[in-house]
Structures are given as structure tokens and as C-alpha cells.
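Morning. Coffee machine broken again, so started the prediction first thing and wrote up yesterday's gels while waiting. Chain of 149 residues, entered below exactly as on the submission form.
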Amino acid sequence: MSDTDLLPVLAEIRDDFLALTQKERLQLLLEFSNELPDLPQRYADHPELLEKVVECQSPVFIFVEVDEKAVVHFFATAPEESPTTRGFASILAQGLTGLTTEQLLAVPDDFPQMLGLSQAVSPLRLRGMSGMLGRAKRQVRELLRAASV
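Came back before lunch.
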């Protein structure tokens, strides 16, 4: 999947960012940070089930579920005092949840760079989002392997 044939939900997020100035992109990222869904109670009560994203400067944890229809559900938690990181987690939660496993695995690894934020946030922050995406893909691959055994 190239950046020209991104899935509609991811293309829409990308296009929303690219239609804005750098300053406005940061504002949109902040809006996403306010939209990070709360963890379901089953994870809020058992944070040990979540995987720490060590590429992130802030304490970010993710978990991916795949339901019986091979649909992905992406969960993340990030501190409210880390709006950039929360924004990236929210983008992925909104963009990856509902995809099939095949669709998620086809998301370009450089999707975070496609948002046009490289001038607005540090490379380390973008690496954090890439780390979240990479871990989500790895978790899906592990779930698929376990299901085929």
C-alpha cells in the first residue's frame, strides 16, 4: 500500500493534516489528544496486559485485540500532560481500530511521516508514533501466528 492508496480512514487523517499550516497541524494534533478513548475496564484494571512503547519519551502503553472477524481494536494510554504523544496514540486508535488484520499490516511504516509534522515536532516524537505502529503490527502478527497453531 503506497501513500496514494491509503485506506480511506488513514487518508482522511493524512489529508486533514496536510491541508493545514504547521501551526494549525499542531492544533489538530492537540484536538486528537483530547479524543484518545479511555481504556476499556478490562485493561484499566490490568495495566500489565499493555505493552510499553519504549520509543516514546512519555509513558505510553498499547494493546491490540483481534476479534473473531479478524477486525483490529487498538487501545492506548498516554499521560494528559503529553499532548503530542496522546495525539499520536489517538490518531492510531481512530485510524487502526476497525481495520482487518490484513489492512493493518499493509499500513505503510512511514505513515507518521505522511502527516506533515516533521517541521512541527521532533524526530524523537515521530519515532514514538512509528514505534506504536510497529508494535501494533507485531502484536497482530503474534496473534495471527497463535491462532494458526
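The longest helix spans residues 123-148. Going to sketch it on the whiteboard this afternoon.
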